[in-house]
Design brief:
The protein is an alpha+beta fold. It folds into two domains: 3-93, 2-Layer Sandwich (Phosphorylase Kinase, domain 1); 98-276, Alpha-Beta Complex (Aminoglycoside 3'-phosphotransferase, Chain: A, domain 2), CATH 3.90.1200. The chain is built from nine helices and ten strands. The protein has helices spanning 3-12, 61-73, 108-121, 133-143, 151-163, 202-211, 216-227, 232-259, 263-276; strands at residues 23-27, 33-40, 43-50, 80-84, 89-93, 98-99, 171-173, 182-184, 188-190, 197-199. The strands form three sheets. Strands 1-2-3-5-4 form a five-stranded antiparallel beta sheet, with helices on both faces. A three-stranded antiparallel beta sheet has the order 6-8-9, covered by helices on one side. Strands 7-10 form a two-stranded antiparallel ribbon. Helix 4 packs antiparallel against helix 5 (151-163) and helix 4 runs parallel beside helix 8 (232-259). 36% of the residues are buried.
């Protein structure tokens, strides 16, 4: 049975879809799940099925679906139509639009939109589950082979994470704000709430800055768009979270490089390491 045939069988297990005709197309993206576009009766949907073995962190699927639905109520994400956390199965609205590209992040208007989007996201109620960066870092470290040349720097990353001060405040955060998780349609919206939980709000800005290696002026524009102004206190908080994100990012990349070596990962690891040392 092909992955599409298996997905069709899973779709048929959802109430109302047992005999409903549907065409499924594989959508690329995401390490911990398989995603399909579903077309039926002139409408489009997205079916996402969690992998049996997770490649990276995350894992609280019930929380993920709940926080996505909460964001959807504000127009910030796709509406969840059906979810079964025990099977890692979710059927959601298909968002019309274009996923952002890294090149677009050089635009002042794009950074303004992202800052405003995150400000609205962070206005949501706390979920009661806190992000634990040290636990995430140690999970990545456990996946690295002890004898590899990267092991020594990995331990430095753990130290950076461990020494990061606790959040001054917590907000309901996405925790994986990168261009590929932002889609521009009628409005800018977020994709993939796999890592969402309560965290220092500056971490969401830091993830965009660190993953895309934004320049200092771009980082300042993003912070101003988010907070309405730049202050020394906010700047210091953002700097600390950028360093925290970079330490986690380097560990994540090191794990992925072991699993599937690629030149772009090696290049990004070098950039991140340079910022951290």
């Amino acid at each position: 049975m092909t992955s599409t045939e298996a997905a069709r069988a899973i779709l048929a297990s959802i109430p109302g879809w047992t005999t409903r005709p549907a065409n499924l197309t594989v959508l690329h993206g995401g390490l911990n799940h398989r995603t399909f576009r579903v077309e039926s009766d002139g409408e489009r949907y997205v079916l996402r099925i969690a992998s049996q073995e997770r490649v990276t962190g995350g894992g609280n699927r019930a929380l993920e679906y709940s926080l996505q639905q909460q964001a959807a109520a504000r127009g910030l994400a796709a509406t969840v139509l059906f979810a079964d956390a025990s099977r890692g199965l979710v059927l959601m609205e298909y968002l019309q639009g274009d996923v952002l590209t890294p090149r677009q992040l050089a635009s002042r208007s794009t950074l303004q939109q992202i800052g405003e989007l995150l400000c609205e996201l962070h206005a949501q109620p706390l979920c009661g589950v806190n992000f634990d960066p040290l636990a995430a870092a140690e999970t990545y470290l456990d996946k690295l082979e002890p004898g590899r040349s990267s092991a020594a720097f990995a331990r430095q990353c753990i130290e950076i994470v461990s020494n990061t001060p606790p959040p001054r405040e917590r907000r309901c955060c996405h925790n994986d704000v990168v261009a590929s998780n932002l889609i521009q349609g009628r409005s800018l919206q977020l994709l993939d709430f796999e890592y969402a939980c309560d965290n220092e709000p500056m971490f969401d800005l830091a993830s965009l800055i660190g993953w895309h290696n934004l320049a200092a002026n771009e980082s300042k524009l993003l912070l101003e768009a988010y907070a309405g102004e730049f202050t020394q206190e906010l700047g210091a908080r953002l700097s600390a979270q950028c360093r925290l994100f970079d330490a986690l990012q380097w560990l994540w990349l090191a794990v992925r490089q072991c699993q599937q070596p690629e030149n772009w990962k090696e290049t990004q690891m070098a950039k991140v390491r340079k910022r951290l040392i």
